[in-house]
Amino acid sequence: MSHTFSAWDDTIVALATPPGIGAIGIIRLSGENSIAIADALFTGKNLSDQASHTLHVGMLKNDKEELDEVVVSLYKAPKSYTGENIAEISCHGSPFIQQQIIAACIQKGARLAKPGEFTQRAFLNGKMDLTQAEAVADVIAAHSLAAKQTALKQLRGGFSFDLKALRGQLIGFAALIELELDFSQEDVEFADRLQLERLIAQLMVSATQLLHSFRLGNVIKNGVNVAIIGKPNAGKSTLLNALLNEERAIVSDIAGTTRDTIEEVLNINGVLFRLIDTAGIREHATDRIEKLGIERSRHNAEKADIIIHLADLTDNDRSGISWLKPYSEKVIEVYNKYDQVSSANLPANAPGADPALGIYISAKNKEGIETLKSVMYERAIGETIQTEHTIVTNARHFAALQKVLECLNDIKAGMDNNLTGDFLALDIRRCLHYLGEITGQVEIDRDILGTIFGKFCIGK
Question: Residue 15 pLDDT more than 70?
């Protein structure tokens, strides 16, 4: 792995557990002098003489001031998370004590770590590639089972393995084509063009599959925004409460009770749906506050991944909401209060579901709700989540894979037009660059790394 940065020559310290009062807090040191700094504060034994991967109980003192009774964990380079010497101090969970210990470590020569700096050091010291480093942040931020499983697969190197396999095959052919260029005057051909064509076709299929997985990956990582849109008193707040199975929104027979948007989160089969209960929409509202609420409803509909258009079966006006037409592809038509309408006036599928005809529910009686959840999940995912397969969840990876596919298309076009080896070699090098950019196997700009690791918490 090639990087433009030299080895770190200083020692960093940070709180590795969430700030606030708790049973314990963990303060992490990493760098050549981390164990020596912990040793300078520790009483009872010489930590520098102890073996790696051992725990030691004792008192921390800064000069004569007792700081806390602690457990110090030692991890010596290169067998540590960062590849450097690491000392982790488990102290009592008082924020005052934690700050005292951190201040004492800084006094002894450490400096406060930047966001993500521990994981950045792990990457730069070759302990993980860039996709694995980014997966660390995804594991920490995982808010559902599917998000956790997908992030753990990437952390274990699943995505990296797929990319390295693609890159390794392409490197083999690149080497043969480069060799041909060295013997260009002798008109020899080392690279089998037919085999290269098959490889490019295979790589294009793999890259396309990874790109297509991003839609699912984005849903798993970020959740699904669902806007509940309907006329006043259609039962939007009742539906929100029924989906959540608890009373979150105020329900009233008075039309226009919901004037502002209400947001709640629903977990369906490991995928988070962010439900947005919007203000009731009348085409010709006169109230200024109501107009503002309706404008927010339109904005939420625009940014939503799914729109639940809730209609009231007891309402004689079935004209619908005209401005929803441009968003028809993401609309689920739901008809509420079927229990208040004569069965003779209902289609045969009520209260069942046919997404083409609409879903019939009674939000008040919580009937048809499970059917609606199933349709929401199917609309968002379209399939059962297979987290053992590689799923792209990172926008940076998606952008680089698009470049990879463009390069593969250029290579294929060049071969179809019988381009010479030197031009093919340029396109192959470009393709290798973008593949390597994903995992960090090429030189990565410092600003890009700063952006990636700046999203981490301080102690990671």
Answer: yes
